[in-house]
Amino acid sequence: DVKVTQSSRYLVKRTGEKVFLECVQDMDHENMFWYRQDPGLGLRLIYFSYDVKMKEKGDIPEGYSVSREKKERFSLILESASTNQTSMYLCASSRGGPDTQYFGPGTRLTVL
Amino acid sequence: KQEVTQIPAALSVPEGENLVLNCSFTDSAIYNLQWFRQDPGKGLTSLLLIQSSQREQTSGRLNASLDKSSGRSTLYIAASQPGDSATYLCATGPGNNDMRFGAGTRLTVKP
Fold it and tell me: Do A102 and B46 touch (CB under 8 A)?
């Protein structure tokens, strides 16, 4: 079974803090993704990576950065957290080609 | 830019009923269409994936159809059970790295 894990299920941070969200997959997938999910808006892609050290911006990259130093690990960084970044963050991975995305359990981030 | 819409936003049915969830998309140039299930506070679980060349996929009590020309997909759930209660999302796009998700349909199956 594919397993995608995220470092925290719940996180509370203060405005201006630097926040790291980590995602690890154990299936040697090439592609990894970070989404945020907000009520009524669905999932929106923040960044994705198709290989180590490679990244592409999604629909809403502003205020976020990512790092992929190893194939199995994809980190999302909030350089200076703001209250409008309070959200559910979901990580996913997939093989190259016509494969589904496998999701982690999500991190609910609250920025006070 | 692809837009994905799911109507209704919420649906409540009695146990045992057959039901259909709808998904519509604006751009027919899709790579595939996927249906996911999400339980409250959890991640997404893949249910069915339909390649752009296919018309339908089946898994157990679930059947998903795809009509690219009309920009529609349906998820049919037979003999619904309380354990089917969840939010169902569809997603599609021109490539696997460019998927657009609908906002989901929240299904409640009452015992």
Answer: yes
